[in-house]
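Dear support,

We are seeing what looks like truncated structure output for some complexes. This example has two components. We would appreciate it if you could run it in full and send us the complete token output so we can diff it against ours.
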Amino acid sequence: MIALVGIQFMPTTRNQRDMVPKTDFMVVNNVPTEVERIITTSCYDCHSNNTEYPWYNRVQPVAWFLEGHIKEGKEELNFNEWDTYSSRRKNSKLKSIISQIEDDEMPLSSYTIIHREAKLSKEEKKIVFEWVSNLKDSL
Amino acid sequence: MAVVFLSTTSCKDTKKEHDNEDGHHSEQMEENGHMGDGMEDHSKMENDNMQSSDNMMAKNQHATMSSQIVGDYLELKDALVADDKDAAAKTGGRMVSALKDFDIGSFPAGQQKELKDIIEDAKEHAEHIEKSPIDHQREHFDVLSKDVIDLIAITGTDKTLYQDFCPMYNNNKGAQWLSASKEIKNPYYGSKMMTCGSVQKQIN
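Here is the complete output from our reference environment:
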């Protein structure tokens, strides 16, 4: 119990920016509101420069867990930097997004167990899948 | 005039040496026969010749540089043909190192950006192949194939390759792959549909 209290005082780096850059996925693409809501809620915590920090995200060891995944997630795909990717890279990223969502690999189950709102329903999966597939074909 | 003649001859001699080296400069030899009208033209031509021989050397070198990547790719393709996930993963890992070792520094500045892009993209797919189940390996192999095809379009290759096409993969959008033999062995479906596909073109 004491340890659990103690680790609350250990610092973590905050992944937060006020500005949405011009290169952001939502800015560059004409994203329907519903798709934007789903992707922002379910993906942006780890795949952008801005993590939403509800109270439980500030509690250790959740904050540590999140920090590690944010670093790794942003390396793989950063929605804020979307337009800095070449069309070859965009195509690859979209392909990965589609297959990760299709196979329930993303969002990580270890993440959605706490962030219940990030878990994708069948309907939400279909909406994102269809829209992202169309975007990929239009590249 | 004598000076021009002399230097033309010496230029020819150098040319001959180059011809012996790689044996297909005959067009330029002919061109060379018509010169001697002015020193300026001549020195320009000599310069061009030097450059083209340099390019030729660089080209061979570049084809050798991509050789390891293409070799790993072909092994990976064979593993997928054989439905062998573990072998594919292992080769994927090897390909990651081959891609990391690829030095774009010796390529002309104009090609470096695209090469970097291709290498980076291919590396990501090879990394995924290293740690994924076979369905995913094949999905990544599809994009990786495109990367390798684009890569050798720039670097050239020292192998004879066949660019094959499977019309069914990808929800009937189709997918390409490279093979060292003419016979179709499908890496996207393996034993399920071994002979599905056709040769699109021969490279080299």
